[in-house]
Design brief:
205 residues, alpha/beta, seven-stranded mixed beta sheet, 7 helices, 32% strand
Length: 205
């Protein structure tokens, strides 16, 4: 990520820039607002200790905590972690592929807001998530609408002032989640949608 991402979290605008020059606006305003109806559908699947991967400014981690669900948010951005803590969430600066508290004991791992794209390889990420989960646990994932398949790109975060370094990112459609989950040793248990947002819950067989 980059300083532009952090500035977006603090109230600016930012986007993902692809090598082709295409720009995809990041919905930082929604991340800063209280949870909306679609978020509620996602959070309703989290009934026990939850790890919110890529928690951003903490709207979901804080909402789960307010419901009495033990929740830890992790994010690679120090600004995101600071904002999440200010919001009342419990959050740490961590890379999901590095050591994470509670490995192998989480009831749910939450991948909202396109965070299935972290690392540019959804199967690798889901395999990591499977190791974070305890017995009977589930991954609760936000995906793209059907028809989007699996798309991998090199991207960077841009903004009015500058752009950061390039990194791998991915987008996974509802039509491709079953295949990616199976490759990671998981299976699709539930799917749902609210307006243009699609969600899936994955469990171990």
């Amino acid at each position: 990520m980059s300083g532009e991402f952090d500035r977006g979290l603090l109230g600016g605008s930012c986007w993902l820039e692809l090598a082709s020059g295409e720009r995809i606006a990041l919905p930082v305003e929604r991340w800063r607002r209280p949870p909306e109806t679609g978020d509620g559908l996602l959070l309703s699947r989290c009934a026990g200790p939850t790890l919110d991967v890529g928690c951003g400014p903490g709207r979901l981690a804080a909402a789960l905590g307010a419901r009495g669900v033990a929740t830890l948010g992790i994010d690679s951005s120090p600004v995101a972690v600071r904002l999440a803590l200010r919001r009342g969430a419990i959050a740490l600066r961590r890379d999901v592929f590095a050591r994470v508290p509670g490995e192998g004991r989480w009831r749910h791992v939450l991948l909202a807001d396109g965070n299935i794209g972290i690392g540019g390889d959804p199967v690798r990420l889901l395999r990591r998530v499977a190791r974070l989960l305890g017995p009977g646990g589930s991954a609760v994932v936000e995906v793209e609408p059907p028809g989007h398949g699996l798309r991998r790109e090199r991207v960077r975060v841009g903004g009015p002032a500058e752009a950061g370094g390039w990194f791998g990112w991915a987008w996974l459609g509802m039509d491709a989640i079953g295949t990616s989950a199976a490759e990671a040793g998981l299976r699709l248990r539930w799917s749902g949608k609210h307006e243009r947002r699609w969600f899936a819950e994955l469990t171990a067989p």
